[in-house]
Write a structure and sequence with these properties.
This is Terpene synthase N-terminal domain-containing protein. Residues 225-319 form the Terpene synthase metal-binding domain. Pfam families: Terpene_synth, Terpene_synth_C. The protein has 334 residues and is an all-alpha fold. The protein folds into 2 domains: 5-198, Glycosyltransferase (Alpha/alpha barrel); 209-333, Farnesyl Diphosphate Synthase (Orthogonal Bundle). Helix content is 62%, strand content 0%. It is built from 14 helices and no strands. The protein is elongated, with a radius of gyration of 25 Å. The chain starts with a helix and ends in an 8-residue tail after the last helix.
Length: 334
């Protein structure tokens, strides 16, 4: 990417900038657990990778600081569920006991929370951080989903849209890049939203999108050359789909090399997969498997004619990947 987010804002250890000032402001003034939780939530605007130290400190704070039992704020289902989800999403274990105050003597969730749509939505999303065997969270999903289905047409935007999206795909299972896109549209409708944070998020989103488009262009040219060379009309032409999938895993600018490497690898695997699944005979599958196990261009003669170029291109591309990773001059391959 020609101009990175950090370069554009001059983010260095010695140059104060709006971003740095903003970061220091959150680090040193917003000490309450409430403000910390809201700040961490707002970083889902897609700029969390620019605040690693602040996020670490914020997580330490909300993990170790007990939520005040007498506070109306922290007796709120929304805030308890938000804290639970954020900690678990960052790999910090938190017991489901925190939801005990919202359950009745039989262990079921209390009907008192049915009139709190935001709380139900937060509970529903948080419960999707469950691990196998957490019955409390399984119950929470069923309980919250049933009531959200009933009330989704009775609440205003943007909450109505958030509920519909969550019922389709729960927030912890949503692609981060798409989550950012949705949240940017919703964030400016929140009370006391931060204009600078939203500006930074929009700028970062557009800069990363430019990088993604450059990567996709390069990958499309690589794929077209490969696809036209191997001449396998039964194989799916799916580089855009594959690249979208890699962005779902790693969308940040610093993972550019990994995205391109994954996309090329999955593209080659896709050609092999289609060959094994929909076209090759059983005998041809055995021969291709034998050749792949031996991983040597000299055995290409055991393959049927139509698979030879696929085998050669697979080997040459992986040799190229390894050479580039190890710093071997690429001229050796020409």
């Amino acid at each position: 990417m020609g101009t990175s987010f950090r370069a554009l804002f001059g983010v260095t250890s010695s140059s104060p900038t709006p971003l740095l000032s903003h970061r220091h402001a959150y680090a040193h003034t917003n000490k309450s657990t409430l403000n910390t939780l809201l700040f961490l939530k707002r970083l889902t605007l897609g700029i969390d990778n620019h605040f690693p130290e602040v996020i670490r400190a914020a997580l330490d704070r909300i993990e170790t600081e007990e939520l005040p039992g007498e506070s109306d704020v922290f007796n709120s289902l929304h805030m308890v569920a938000l804290r639970f989800r954020l900690l678990r999403q960052h790999g910090i274990w938190l017991s489901t006991d925190v939801f005990g105050k919202f359950r009745n003597e039989t262990g079921s969730f209390s009907t008192d929370i049915c009139t709190d749509p935001r709380g139900l939505l937060s509970l529903y999303n948080a419960a999707h951080m469950a691990v196998p065997g957490e019955v409390v969270l399984d119950d929470a999903i069923a309980f919250a989903r049933g009531h959200l289905e009933v009330i989704k047409g009775k609440v205003r935007s943007p909450l109505a849209g958030q509920i519909s999206c969550a019922l389709d795909i729960a927030l912890p299972r949503f692609t981060r890049r798409l989550e950012t896109m949705h949240y940017m549209a919703e964030y400016e409708h929140e009370e006391a939203y931060d204009t600078l944070l939203l500006e930074l998020a929009r700028l970062n989103f557009n800069l990363v999108r430019i990088l993604h488009l450059k990567e996709l262009k390069a990958l499309s040219l690589w794929w077209r050359d490969l696809y036209d060379t191997v001449k396998l009309p039964y194989a799916r032409d799916r580089m855009v789909e594959i690249y979208f999938w890699t962005c779902g895993m790693l969308h940040e600018e610093e993972y550019s090399h990994s995205r391109k490497l994954f996309a090329k690898t999955f593209g080659l695997v896709s050609l092999l997969d289609d060959t094994f699944d929909v076209h090759a005979t059983l005998e041809e599958c055995y021969k291709l498997n034998e050749a792949m196990q031996r991983w040597d261009e000299s055995v290409v003669s055991i393959l049927p004619e139509y698979l030879r170029m696929l085998y050669i291109k697979t080997l040459s591309n992986f040799f190229f990947f390894e050479a580039k990773q190890e710093g071997i001059p690429l001229l050796c391959f020409y």
